[in-house]
Amino acid sequence: MSDPFTNLSIALELGVFILLALISIRRDMRYLGLSAAFLLFVFYDLARELAWSLPSIVTSLSLFIASWAALWSAWQLYRNKEPVLSEAAPAAPRSDNPLPPKAKSK
């Protein structure tokens, strides 16, 4: 094992992956590529940190795919102004308002 910053980096990358995956699933699929990129970063760092005996093509290919996935997401975010799965509901009226509704004037 190396320095604690490597472990912290892996934990942060995993956290970013989870957050981006949740955003992709719940709100906007354009973040899916960034989510995949961070998952591949976690894979690469774990393989290096734990000294997995993988062919170098596997780790190189994982970084290549991560770069393309991030580029795809960035391009989708740049290209589209609106989210792909935009299902934003109008805000519901607040029920915790202690004041009665205003009467309509004629």
How would you sum up this structure in a few lines?
Helix content is 61%, strand content 0%. It contains three helices and no strands.
How does this model look, in words?
α1 (4-26) runs antiparallel to α2 and α2 packs antiparallel against α3. This protein is elongated. The chain is built from three helices and no strands. Helix content is 61%, strand content 0%. It has helices at 4-26, 32-49, 56-79. 16% of the residues are buried. The longest helix is centred in the middle third of the chain and has 24 residues, at 56-79. By secondary structure, the protein is an all-alpha fold.
Topology:
Layout: H1 4-26, H2 32-49, H3 56-79
Work out the number of β strands.
0
The largest sheet is: none
- Percent helix, as a range, is 55-70%
User: What value does the Rg take, in angstroms?
Assistant: 22 Å
Using the alpha-carbon principal axes, give the shape: elongated
The fraction of residues in strands falls at under 5%
Amino-to-carboxy terminus distance:
76 Å
Features:
mainly alpha, elongated
